[in-house]
Amino acid sequence: MIAAMKRREFITLLGGAAAAWPLAARAQQRERVRRIGVFMNTSAEDPVGQAGSAAFAQGLQQLGWEVGVNLRIDTRWGAGDTERYRQYATELVGLAPDVILATANSIVGYLQQVSRTVPIVFVTTIDPVGGGLVISLARPGGNATGFTSYEFTLNAKLLELLKEIAPGVTRVAVVRDPFVSAGSGGFAAIQTAAASFRVELTPIGVRQADEIELGITDFARESNAGLIVVGPPSSMAPIIRDLIIGLTTRFHLPAVYATRAFVSRGALISYGSDPITEYRRAAGYVDRILKGEKPADLPVQAPTQYELVINLKTARALGIDVPPTLLARADEVIE
After folding, report:
1. Residue 100's domain is classified under what CATH number?
2. CA 333 → CA 289, 313, 329, distances in Å?
3. b vs e for 201-221, b when ≥16 Cβ sit within 10 Å of the residue's Cβ?
4. In sequence order, which residues have a C-beta less than 8 Å from that of residue 314 and are 6 or more positions away?
5. In which domain, by residue range, is 186 found?
6. Which pLDDT score, from 0 to 100, does residue 28 have?
7. DSSP code string of 238-256
8. Using the 8-state DSSP alphabet, how is residue 6 labeled?
9. Are 219 and 326 part of one and the same domain?
10. Rounded to an integer, what distance in angstroms lies between the CA atom of residue 330 and that of residue 77?
11. Which of 58, 92, 106, 257 gives 20 to 30 Å between its CA and that of 190?
12. Taking Cα atoms as reference points, which of 80, 182, 84 lies closest to residue 124?
């Protein structure tokens, strides 16, 4: 009798398990692991890159994507090296990802040279239309879309801020990369505004540390000098960013930057968008693409706000009295 009961219980248990198997299989199918490539143009040790990568991952998690459950992320760190850009673009596309998050115009360009079908969501880019990444902002039309850091006209605002915080400046060095649209277009915008502010411009390239050090050192030999750094900070290696800040400190040059990442490292003043916000917003576009939408139909979005950040400690070290009207407008003041 006991043996018969155990046999019936076993059969019942077996039947229940058999009925559950299709449900488990369907659940597993629903939780199919999707693959995302992340291509950063900074080094893995760079705090700007780390913060952006973390914000992107957090945004995905909030949307229900969990690494190891329904998501796999393959990350490559370009560290500002164009040879790595080419190599890693081929590697990431070869992994057949569902979508790639890409930072900076040059990286998107290399990815598109490898594939015009793998979806790309970009951040920290400038002028994606002029750079050939998309057909238009409203209707990108290809395999890429994303979020821009700022428009070229913002650079004229940087010159305005420099004159406001240091009215005596009549000579302005513009540190930029002339081989990317952020650098060439940014410098052109400052040139347009320079006459109205009665300043003389001197361009300085950022390709090599020696070029920067020599350029700023020569420029600082004469008085009434100031500096503007155009382009997002992620386009520069950390050693380059720290070199520029160190030189402006050594030569007591008032300088304005396009994002707060410089100011948090000791620079004087910045005005621009928050790149970390771009990474969080990018997670939403990646989510939509994973759910079936196409980059061609997702409009490129501009920043929703710009932030003015002032480092008072640096101002005091430079002997600058920040105007109260400028302090009142600041979104953040670093003491």
Report:
1. 3.40.50.2300
2. 38, 10, 10
3. ebebebeeeeebeebbeebbe
4. 249, 263, 266, 267, 268
5. 154-272+307-334
6. 46
7. HHHHHHHHHHHHHTT--EE
8. H
9. yes
10. 33
11. 106
12. 182
**DSSP-derived secondary structure letter, 67:** B
On whether both 182 and 293 belong to a single domain, the answer is no
- 223-276 per-position pLDDT tens digit: 999 999 986 544 555 667 888 999 999 999 999 998 888 898 899 999 998 889
Percentage helix, strand, coil for the chain under 3-state DSSP, each rounded to 5: 45, 20, 35
Dihedral over alpha carbons 313, 246, 263, 178 (to 10 degrees):
150
Q: Please state, in angstroms and rounded to a whole number, the distance separating the CA atoms of residues 302 and 137.
A: 9
The encoded tokens of residue 57 equal 């991952």
Token pair, residue 16, equals 């229940």
The pLDDT of residue 9 is 52
CA dihedral 311, 317, 322, 324 (to 10 degrees): 80
Tell me the C-alpha distance between 76 and 71, whole Å.
17
- pLDDT at 3 exceeding the cut of 80: no
Strand partners, 202: 173
Q: Please check whether residues 85 and 219 belong to one and the same domain.
A: no
Rounded Cα gap, residues 225 and 249, in angstroms: 13
- Residue 224, domain member (yes or no): yes
Least Cα distance to 268 among 321, 313, 307 occurs for 313
